[in-house]
Amino acid sequence: MLSERRLQVLRAIVQDYVGTEEPVGSKALTERHSLGVSPATIRNDMAALEDEGFIAQPHTSAGRIPTDKGYRLFVDKLAGVKPMTAPERRAIQNFLEGAVDLDDVVARTVRLLAQLTRQVAVVQYPSLTRSTVRHVELLSLAPARVMLVLITDTGRVEQRMVDCPAPFGEASLADLRARLNSRVAGRRFTDVPMLVEDLPDAFDPEDRGTVSMVLSTLLETLVEENEERLMIGGTANLTRFGHDFPLTIRPVLEALEEQVVLLKLLGEAKDPGVTVRIGHENAHEGLNSTSVVSVGYGSGGEAVAKLGVVGPTRMDYPGTMGAVRAVARYVGQILAES
Amino acid sequence: MLSERRLQVLRAIVQDYVGTEEPVGSKALTERHSLGVSPATIRNDMAALEDEGFIAQPHTSAGRIPTDKGYRLFVDKLAGVKPMTAPERRAIQNFLEGAVDLDDVVARTVRLLAQLTRQVAVVQYPSLTRSTVRHVELLSLAPARVMLVLITDTGRVEQRMVDCPAPFGEASLADLRARLNSRVAGRRFTDVPMLVEDLPDAFDPEDRGTVSMVLSTLLETLVEENEERLMIGGTANLTRFGHDFPLTIRPVLEALEEQVVLLKLLGEAKDPGVTVRIGHENAHEGLNSTSVVSVGYGSGGEAVAKLGVVGPTRMDYPGTMGAVRAVARYVGQILAES
DNA sequence: CCTGGCACTCTTCATATGCGAGTGCCAGCG
DNA sequence: CGCTGGCACTCGCATATGAAGAGTGCCAGG
C-alpha cells in the first residue's frame, strides 16, 4: 500500500501535468506544492510510484507523467467531482431552456458540453427501448401504400413506408389505427410485440396480410431504432491534443465517425454515476490515448441515454466530470418538462 | 493571353503538384510530361506564369506550386470532369440502394462521398422550400394539447407541439385535419400560407383560436425548417491535409461545425452544374486554404438541396467533380423512386 | 526516514557546414 | 524570334557538433 504522502505526490503530478502538459520533475513539485519535504525525498517516492506503474518517464532524464493506471487511481481515490459554480449552472440552464424540439435539445447539449469541457462532446439521442409509445399514426398514401408514423414520449418521430399485399380501405385503416393505439399507446416498447400479437385475427381475411405487414413494420422500427443515433461536436478541440498531431488525431476522428464504436463505448458504462474510461481501458484502439467521461441521463429517474466527452487522458478529470454530470442533470430536467 | 504551351505547363504543374504534394521544378516537368522542349524553355514559361499570378514559389529556389488563380484557370479551361468508371457507378448504386429511409440515404451518401473522394463530405438534407406537403397529421395528446406532424414528399417528418388556448374536441380536430389536408396536400410549401389563410373562418368562434394557433405553428415549421440540416463525414481525411497540422486543420474543423457557414457556402453556388470554389474564393476565413466542390441534387429535374466535399485546394479536381456529380445523380434517382 | 550533494544521462537548442534542387540569365543556334 | 545548354547563385534542408540544462539515482550523514 502506498503511503499517504506518495498519494499526495501522485495527485500533485497529475495536477501539474494536466496543467502544463509537460513532464514534471521532483524539484518543480516541491516548489509548486507545499509537501514539506525535499526534492530528494520526492525522488524516492517517485521511484516507488514508478515501480508500481502509476507514473513513467517518457525518456530517461525527463520528468514523470502519469500512466493510465496512475490516472485511474487519481480518479478513483484522489479526486472528487468538481461541482459547477452557480453562474455556470445558470448559464447551462439558460442555454438549454431555449431549445424548441428534441433535435434542438441534443444539438444544444453537444455545443454546451464541448464548450464547457473544451473537448469532444457526444450525446446519444434518448433511447427508445425504455420509452413508451405515445401514438401510432397510419396514413393512406395510395390504395396499397400506407405510411406508418411512430411517436414516442420523448418526442421522437419515426416513419416507415409499408407496401400492402392488397388494397386497404380507409375504413379498415381507421379501424386498425384505433385498435392499435388503444393497445399500445402509453406502453413500453418492449411490451408492444406481445400486445399486438393477435391483432390480425380481428380483421377480415383479405385485410390480414396488410395488417400483419403493418405490424411487422412497426416491430422492425422499434428494434432498428434501438440502434441509437448520436450527435458529436467540438471536434476542433482535438487540435489541442498534442504536438505529434496526425498520428494522434487521426484514429480518434476515425473512431468518432464510427457511430457503432461510440455507442458501444457509451453503452459499456453501467455505472449509475459518472463513468470514466481511461486510455487503454477503451476497447477501441483509436481511443487508446483518450479518456471517455460519460453518464446516463433521462427525463425521469431512469436513464434513457448517455452523454459524455472524449478527450486526452491528460484531462482535468474533476472539472470534466462535474460538467458532464451537471449537463446531464439539466438535460434530464428539460426533457421531463417537455 | 497565354500561349498554348504555357497552359500545358500550368496543367502539368497542377497535376504533378496534386500527385506529389511537392513543389515541381522545371526539370521534373520535362521528364514526366512529353512537352517536347527543354527545361530552360519551361523555366521561361514558368517565369511568365508567375508574373501572371498563376503559380508561385514557396521560397526562392524551390519548385512552383499553383496559386488559387492557377487552380481556377485549371478548373475552368484545362480540366474536364472525369467520369466515373462503370464499376464505380455500380458500386455507388448498390451502396445507395440499400438505404431504408431518408436519414439513411443521407448518411450513406456522406460515407460514399467521403470514401470516393477521400475528403470531407457534406450533404444537405433535401430542402423543404421546394418540396410539397404530402400530409399533415394532427393528434390530440390532451384536451388542450395537439401534436402536429408534417410529412413531406421527400419523406421528411417534422413534428411540433401546440398548446391550445381552449380545449379542442376530437370532432373539430378531425374536421380541421380533413380541411387542412384537402387544401395543402400535394402543394408547395411556399403556397401554403395563402391556402390556409381563411381556414379559421370555417370554424366555431370558440375553436378559432386553436385553429389559428395550429396554422401558425405549421407555417413556423415550414419557415424554420428552411434552416436546413446537413450531415458531414470523412473528417478523418483532414489528417491528410498537410504537414503543418494544427494551424491548418483547426479552422477547418471549426468551420465545419458551424452549420450556418456550411449552408451559406453550399447555398452560394448557383451554378446548375458542379460548382468549385477555390481557396480565398470562400468567404469564410477558416476555409481559405480549402476548396469546396458542390452540386445540387433532387428527386425530379429540380435541385432541392446541395451536396459536396471540402478538401485542400491541392485536390484532384476532375476526379472530385466527377465523383460529386455522379453521387448527386444517383441520390436523385433514389429519392425519385421512394 | 529524510536530506544535501554529486556524478551521470539524455534531450534540446543553437550554430556551423555541405549538399542538392532549382532558378535566372546569357550567349549561341536554328 | 524562340529554343537550348551552360553556369553561377540562392536557399532550404539535413546532418554533425557541442554546450547547456533538466532531471535522475545513489550515497553518506543527520
Automatic annotation (TrEMBL), chains A, B:
The keyword Transcription regulation applies. InterPro entries: GAF-like_dom_sf, HrcA, HrcA_C, WH-like_DNA-bd_sf, WH_DNA-bd_sf, WHTH_transcript_rep_HrcA_IDD. Keywords: Repressor, Stress response, Transcription, Transcription regulation. The keyword Repressor applies. Residues 103-321 form the Heat-inducible transcription repressor HrcA C-terminal domain. GO terms for molecular function: DNA binding. It comes from the Bacteria. One of its GO terms (biological process) is negative regulation of DNA-templated transcription. It holds the Pfam family HrcA. NCBIfam families: hrcA. Belongs to the HrcA family. Negative regulator of class I heat shock genes (grpE-dnaK-dnaJ and groELS operons). Prevents heat-shock induction of these operons. This is Heat-inducible transcription repressor HrcA.
